[in-house]
Amino acid sequence: MKFHLEASFRLSGDASCALPDLADLFQGSADILQKGAPVGHGARLADWRLEENQIFLVLDSDKYVRAHDALLRLRRPLAQMLGKKHRIGVRGIEVTRFEIEVESNREISHKIPYVNKIDFEDGKLRLLLDVGPGGIGEAELDGRIPDRIVSLLEEKLADYGGKGEHWELLWESPRRMPIFDSDPTEEMVKLGWIKHGSSRGQWIHGPESTHLFRTFERIVLEDMLEPLGYREMIFPKLDTWDVWKKSGHALGVYPEIYFVCPPKTRDPAFWEEVMDHYKVTHEIPLELVKEKIDYPIGGMCYAQCPTFWGFLQGMTLPSNDLPIKVFDRSGTSHRYESGGIHGIERVDEFHRVEIVWLGTRDQVLEEGERLKEGYRRIFEEVLELQWRMAWVTPWFMAQEGKAGLSEMAGAGTVDYEALLPYNGNWIEFQNLSVNGEKYPKGFTVKSQSGEPLWSGCSGVGLERWASAFLSQKGLDPDGWPEAFRKRLGKMPSGIRFL
């Protein structure tokens, strides 16, 4: 890896009188530019010149002391010398050219922020960065933007062909013969349990389907959450950018979210043209609407638990109150599934019970085991499913382009999968994640004792539970497991049509 940087220090006055001192400083700069690097490595000042109130420099380097770091290293001794001896200040840094060279066995077509051009030749990628207004300047150097560009480039090169995520089978239930072999969604539509909503990947659930969902909820609450001392909360269902930045979702959530854009103003006069157009044409003038809405402030609920953390943000929790255990079931979640929507199991709008717990590392791991045991009892003794558990790449590592197990011992994700007899595939219908310090650190939540806080979350997806259960047990309640029928009670009659 090589860096070539052409930049200048802008001074408060003509520094011609300081020329000898500048020469001494730059001739002896090797120690500054190569400090911390192996012998023979680091940065090198290839050229410099003074033009009245501006010092121009050319820096070349390898990966050990990158050129932009070398430039920043020079700023302080330069300012001290000029200020103390000549009463001249360093007013800023201007970048006129910045190139990065990386070894690679292939081209890269991705658009990378601040990169103007990418060439591939002789096994090397050469990046020419944008400089000047809107490009790389002093603020971007101080903000470590060049280092993040390099990290992003390395990630994209490593991601070529896709990363295989970790998947390790932990446990599998006994084989159970299914009593149904059709697509449950198709049968639910035929029986009038559900109908398509007006939006893509959206269903309207009738009394029967809704009663099934509420039974699943009640089982989770009565058999697991209430005995374990969970308290119900209501989490917001609009996630702002600030929330997603702290939770880590801002790294890669964009292709899957429904964006939320507020109107530029609520003034009816501003919207009169839109309203008049509809009155005349009975069509929504979408292009005109597009001009009148503001930038997205975030998106509709994607993962459900991130907005909870605003309740704790910046707070210190009493040690005696740990662990904290809460859940939310107050609204829908939304993900844009692209071409992958199918039936009720892969939808854009879905319903979940979100379970969140936090405490010390040991408390969070112990609680995770209690929840796993609760799920096992429900899936084995109440629903009688054919299912399995697998240790998988944690969501936060997958979103950051990583694979394998978490570096935080004990942290990670368990997926619960059920067999779909009608197509022979396994569907993930439940998960449980121990997220380590990720959320408490992101939202600056501390404990009274000073011991690091961990957290976990688990989403009970009602559509996925229904898909798993109905695929194996069918839609006739008489064929459902006795323990579940007792919890179900009487199935309500549906809505009839003439």
Give a description of the structure.
- It is a single chain.
- It contains 15 helices and 22 strands.
- By secondary structure, it is of the alpha+beta class.
- A hairpin with a 6-residue loop joins β8 and β9.
- α7 packs across α11 and α7 packs across α14.
- About 1% of the residues have low confidence.
Topology of this protein?
Elements: E1 2-11, H1 19-27, H2 30-34, E2 43-51, E3 54-61, H3 67-86, E4 90-103, E5 115-121, E6 124-129, H4 138-142, H5 145-158, E7 167-172, H6 184-190, E8 194-196, E9 203-205, H7 207-225, E10 231-233, E11 238-240, H8 241-247, E12 259-260, H9 268-281, H10 286-292, E13 298-300, E14 316-317, E15 324-328, E16 332-334, E17 349-359, H11 361-382, E18 387-392, H12 395-399, E19 412-420, E20 425-436, H13 438-442, E21 446-447, E22 454-461, H14 462-473, H15 482-488
Parallel strand pairs: 10-15, 14-21
Antiparallel strand pairs: 1-3, 1-4, 2-3, 4-6, 5-6, 7-18, 8-9, 11-13, 12-13, 15-17, 16-17, 17-22, 18-19, 19-20, 20-22
Helix pairs in contact: 7-11, 7-14
